[in-house]
Specification:
Helix 13 (293-297) links the parallel strand 3 and strand 4. With 377 residues, this protein is of the alpha/beta class. It has helices spanning 2-12, 20-27, 30-34, 37-54, 58-64, 66-74, 76-92, 97-121, 148-169, 177-191, 208-224, 231-269, 293-297, 309-312, 330-338; strands at residues 123-125, 195-197, 275-279, 303-304, 350-355, 363-368.
């Protein structure tokens, strides 16, 4: 949140306190609930870099550059975005408004070229549904349909504010660098494949569009910081925030109770240092909040056998085959999560926590056997 406010203030030249609820929504958005904390931390560090770079002297910009190295250790995607922002700022700053339009068109053409390169040279997945991330409002769409209420409220409010800004300056805001960076980031969300399989890793780079729509929201806040807010605007934004966090509190309260139940069950019915998997069987609109619950429950007690991180090759912890602690391939991890894994003799003993009955809110423990598919009793 601190990096977001610093970046918005630096890029807009204002301290937009009225946007604090928007920043709060960004802090607890889809990326946060998915658990993409490496990406989250990396983007936060990159925002501090961008804030220092925006109006900084050459010495200040050079001093901020090491932040990118630190951010790279978390996740490379925000670093690529931050370098692109810095490069566009350097190139576009001395240009006239007309020249910037040509630069914008040329950069979009480059993004199209990157899209085609990735699709032709890698196993990559692109879908037209990525267009729903071009406003960044999708970040507030977390658990289910009811989140369309705050999403719609935010979109309407943003439309009113953008219309007011364009009306006041005659549309000149579109030729300014923040608005063009917003358009370019939105174009990247729509064009760059959301899943890219790099051969050196055991798992693809996924949720690219869903992650980067967070950057779209940040740049939109930079543009909206110029609006002359009215009392009705503040009340409307507060109402949208209350609805969003009200939904979030109710949903997380229920999920936290389920996690507490799972943890108590594991401690009572499963021996220490046992291999344990969790089968949710629950489908959400965007993700299952209990998908990786065993990774947290098992800390200091058991082994989360389906943990996907070691097998991807993208984290500091790596894995060898038949290690007795965690599966060694992402395919096995995924199949355990969806109930399509055939248990092998070397997996035993293996325990599974699952709903006692389909759709039930109570969980039970079942010991799995060799040759059994873990989603079938």
């Amino acid at each position: 949140a601190g990096g977001a406010f610093a970046f918005i203030s630096s890029a807009s030249g204002r301290r937009p306190w009225f946007l604090t609820p928007c920043i709060a929504l960004l802090t607890y958005d889809f990326v946060f609930h998915m658990g993409f904390f490496n990406f989250y931390l990396s983007l936060g560090i990159c925002l501090w870099f961008a804030a220092a770079f925006w109006n900084g002297t050459t010495r200040r910009r050079a001093a901020a550059a090491p932040l990118l190295l630190l951010a790279w250790l978390g996740h490379p995607l925000p670093v690529v975005w931050a370098v692109g922002v810095a490069a566009y700022l350097l190139i576009a700053s001395p240009m006239t408004a007309r020249q910037r339009w040509f630069l914008l068109a040329a950069t979009i053409a480059v993004l199209v070229g990157i899209q085609q390169f990735l699709l032709r040279h890698y196993s990559a997945y692109w879908t037209a549904y990525q267009v729903f991330g071009v406003t960044g409002a999708d970040q507030a769409f977390i658990y289910g349909q009811k989140y369309l209420i705050p999403v719609t409220g935010m979109l309407l409010l943003w439309f009113v504010w953008l219309r007011r800004i364009i009306k006041n300056d005659g549309g000149g805001v579109v030729a300014e660098i923040p608005a063009q960076l917003l358009l370019l980031t939105a174009a990247g969300v729509a064009l760059i494949p959301s899943r890219i399989d790099f051969p050196e890793y055991g798992h693809a780079l996924v949720y690219v569009a869903e992650r980067m729509s967070l950057a779209v929201r940040l740049l939109l806040c930079v543009v909206l910081a110029q609006v002359r807010v009215r009392r009705a605007d503040v009340i409307a934004l507060a109402a949208v925030s209350v609805v969003f966090f009200g939904f979030l509190y109710a949903e997380n309260y229920q999920e936290n109770r389920k996690e507490d139940q799972v943890q108590a069950l594991v401690r009572q019915e499963i021996p220490r240092r046992a291999r344990v998997v969790f089968l949710s069987g629950k489908k959400h609109w965007r993700f299952d909040p209990l998908l990786h619950v065993m990774d947290r429950v098992c800390v200091g007690y058991c082994f989360s056998y389906a943990n996907y991180e070691p097998s991807t090759g993208q984290f500091r912890v790596r894995v060898t085959e038949n290690n007795g602690i965690v599966v060694s391939s992402y395919k096995d991890s995924y199949q355990l999560g969806i109930g399509d894994y055939v248990v092998r003799p070397q997996d035993l003993p293996l325990y599974q926590v699952e709903a006692c009955q389909p759709g039930a809110q109570r969980y039970c423990v079942r010991e799995l056997h060799a040759g059994q598919r873990n989603g079938h009793k």
